[in-house]
Amino acid sequence: MISVIIGTSNSENVLTPTLAALVPGAATGRVREVIIADAGSSDATAEVADIAGCEFFSEPGPLAVRLRSAAARARAPWLMFLRAGVVLDPSWVDESGRFMQHAELQGLTQARAAMFRRGQEFDGSRPLLRDAMTLLGLALGRPKPEQGLLITKRLYDQLGGHRPGARDPEADLLANLGRRRTVVLRSGATLARHI
Questions:
Q1: Helix H or strand E encompassing 31
Q2: CATH code: domain of residue 102
Q3: For 90-128, how does the pLDDT look when each residue is reduced to its tens digit (9 = 90+)?
Q4: Containing domain of residue 99, as a range?
Q5: Using CB atoms within 10 A of its CB, is residue 2 exposed (0-12), middle (13-18) or buried (19+)?
Q6: Which of 15, 54, 89, 126 could form a disulfide with 34 if both were Cys (CB 3.0 to 4.6 A apart)?
Q7: Whole-structure pTM value
């Protein structure tokens, strides 16, 4: 089971598509809860979260502090960090389930985490060789927070979580995790456009 954690700040327009993409995970029981860690939004972010049945808390301050606080509240053994505005492909439920099951069966829950493929860069409509080169470039490139992160709570705690002093705490956590510990799933993560 997964606790999804989303940091927000005046994110009402981009939060809705992110939450809509999580519905299949909630319907199958894969998503236990969605925690919205808000910076004190003045728009309708809290209302969007309430309508969607999310746990919402507002805590002014750095993003790292809010994400760490949300991780401490999480009740599931797996954490999924998403940025507001990231929309996961429908295949994310099965793909993440296979990854978690494999990690648990192989005893790799403290050694591996997963990210989603950057969805806009591969769509299957281009020639196969070009798509293969795009995937190779993504595999060799640096992971980005927009790809989301699926990690066990234990590994997150072992790494020290999001460090409060970091300029970009999400990128810092990915760098701390390292490429050798990160698996890129075939399911994509695409940034929603502002409405």
A1: strand 31-38
A2: 3.90.550.10
A3: 999 999 999 999 999 998 888 899 999 987 544 445 566
A4: 2-191
A5: buried
A6: 54
A7: 0.88
